[in-house]
Amino acid sequence: MLKLEGISKSYGKSKVKAVNDVNLEVKSGEIFGFLGPNGAGKTTTIKMIVGLLKPDEGKVFVDGVNVWEEPLKSKEKISYVPDNPEIYDRLKGIEYLNFIADMYGIEKDKRKEKIEYYSKLFNIENALWDIISSYSHGMKQKLVLTSALLNDPQLFILDEPMVGLDPKSSFNLKEIMRHMCDQGKTVFFSTHVMEVAEKLCDRIAIINNGRIIALGTMEELRSSAKEKESLENIFLELTEDE
Ligand SMILES: Nc1ncnc2c1ncn2[C@@H]1O[C@H](COP(=O)(O)OP(=O)(O)OP(=O)(O)O)[C@@H](O)[C@H]1O
Ligand SMILES: [Mg+2]
To answer: Residues with Cβ < 8 Å from 176, sequence gap 6 or more?
Structure first.
């Protein structure tokens, strides 16, 4: 479903590669966790996947479609929740959702049903007629999540989605992610919460200094670690040596 072929990226004239020759394949039906210390290259990788940044080298394929060669075709398959919910502050919540639904060409009945369902689930249904600038950080995050779920994405990409969410919303989001994968969809997300990754993910990659330093199921990561330990310990052990 998602294939990264040797992608690299440096910012500006910097010779340091924020992402350095990353190869990765994520299958349909997988929940894939992307871990790594601050500045490791997670957001940069994600932005290349969703077509916001052009790789200096390498290619990204979404369901066989090259993201840079056929941007619209690939974007139809993706929903992306960025790490910072920067949205149009002067719109009302409902206007923003309708705008996104228009972009994806979602018909009226389906959009109404989805908006009702997800806004209730995230407990923002009463705020939809308020202007977004009056929302808290978490409410904005939940509005973006709702908008990202309107188009039933085949590939759901989230950059640190649990940040700022209350426990119930975080629980609901994890349920949604699991449910999507049960339906054969694919979820790719970055997180710093080891517990979430350990419990939720089918496979995990750890990136450090732009390079993938570990990849596999929890079992595989455990078997390659010095001692059979928690993901937190494996993470600390692997990222310390670099
Ligand atoms: N717009 C930018 N201009 C210049 N350098 C950048 C820019 N964005 C990121 N970088 C650099 O690229 C590297 C990777 O950053 P990135 O944001 O991908 O890390 P991250 O893994 O998402 O970190 P975090 O866990 O803090 O979100 C860092 O060294 C960072 O300083
Ligand atoms: Mg980041």
So the answer is: 121, 149
Mutate to test the pocket of ligand 1, among 9, 44, 206, 235 (most ligand atoms within 8 A of CB): 44
Q: Which ligand is nearest the CA of 41, by number?
A: 1
pLDDT in tens, 142-160: 999 999 999 999 999 999 9
Instruction: Compute φ and ψ for 76, nearest 5 degrees.
Output: -60, -25
Domains and CATH numbers, the chain: 2-240 (3.40.50.300)
For the entire predicted model, the pTM comes to 0.93
C-alpha 213, offset from chain centre: 20
Residue 55 region by backbone torsions, left for phi larger than 0, else alpha for psi between -120 and 50, else beta: beta
User: How many C-beta neighbours within 10 Å does residue 39 have?
Assistant: 12
